[in-house]
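Example record

The entry below shows one chain as it appears in the dataset: sequence first, then structure tokens.
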Amino acid sequence: MVRRFYSLPSLNALAAFESAARHLSLTKASEELNVTPGAVSRQVRMLEDELGSALFLRRHRAVE
């Protein structure tokens, strides 16, 4: 893991979250960002862990 000397979240994680929130879909976000849905999910999960709070309600095949 890269050691950072500041407390800002990853820009990739923020971009993944913003796209997923706008589309309400990890799959559509992944298509927009040209990555796999799993990569978007991992980025959002990493951001949630960093913030200490759930950002989405995960449903079967959807996020809210």
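Notes for this example: The helical segments are 11-23, 26-33, 37-51. The longest strand covers residues 58-59.
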